[in-house]
Amino acid sequence: MSASPAMSASTAVPSPHTQPGAVPQPRAKTQLRAKTQLRAVPQSPAKTQLRAVPQPRAESRPGKPPRLRLTRRGRIVLIGLPLVLLAALILSLAGLLNSPAKAADTASGLTVTPAVSVTVQPGESLWAIAGKVDPDRDPRDVIADIVQLNDLQAGKVMPGQQLFVPHK
C-alpha cells in the first residue's frame, strides 16, 4: 500500500498511542489544520507511517513579499479618506464655478456709484451723516452703503476722517 502525499482529511491515520492490533479510526475534518498536509514518513524499511507535516508560511517564502492584511478600520481609512477628499474637491470646484460673485455679465452692466467726499466733524456719527446726505432714504441703508464704500470694519468714525458717501 503506497501513501500519496495529498490525502483527504477523512483518511484513517494510525495514532502512535493506539495498540498494535487496533483498527485506526477516521479523523474528523475539523481536527486537521488548513496548513498541514499528510506525508509518508519512513521509520524503517518495513513500516511507513503517515504524519501531519506543517506547510511553510507565505511570509517565509523567499522572493515573494508578504500579503498585506488590513483591519476593518484600515479598509475604511484606505477607501474613505480618498473619497472624502474627492468630495471636498468636487464641492469646492462646484462652489467656485457657480459662485454669484460676478458684479455683472458684461462691462457695460457695471455702473459707478456716485459718491461725494465728506469730512467727519467732532461729535458726528454715521447716523447723522446719513441723515444729512440723503434724508429721503432709510438711514440704515445709507449707513450700509457708507460702510461698504469706505471698507469700515466696526462702523466707527473719527473726527477729521474722510468718507465717501453715496450721492443721488
Secondary structure tally, helices: 3
Main beta-sheet strand count, sense and barrel state: 2 strands, antiparallel
Residue runs with pLDDT of under 50 for 5 or more positions: 1-10
Give me the strand/helix succession: EEHEHHE
- Which bin fits the share of residues in helices? 25-40%
- CATH homologous superfamily heading of the domain at 114-166: LysM domain
Please report the total strand number as a whole number.
Answer: 4
> What's the CATH C level of the domain at 114-166?
Alpha Beta
Widest sheet: strand ordering: 1-2
Task: Draw up the topology in text.
Blueprint: E1 36-42, E2 48-54, H1 72-97, E3 115-119, H2 126-133, H3 139-150, E4 162-166
Antiparallel strand pairs: 1-2, 3-4
Helix pairs in contact: 2-3
What this model shows, in words?
The longest helix is centred in the middle third of the chain and has 26 residues, at 72-97. The protein starts with 35 loop residues before the first strand and ends with a strand. The chain has a domain at 114-166: Membrane-bound Lytic Murein Transglycosylase D, Chain A. 5% of the residues are buried. Residues 1-10 have low confidence and may be disordered. 27% of the residues lie in helices and 14% in strands. The strands form two sheets. A two-stranded antiparallel ribbon has the order 1-2. A two-stranded antiparallel ribbon has the order 3-4. The protein has helices spanning 72-97, 126-133, 139-150; strands at 36-42, 48-54, 115-119, 162-166. By secondary structure, it is an alpha+beta fold. α2 (126-133) packs across α3.
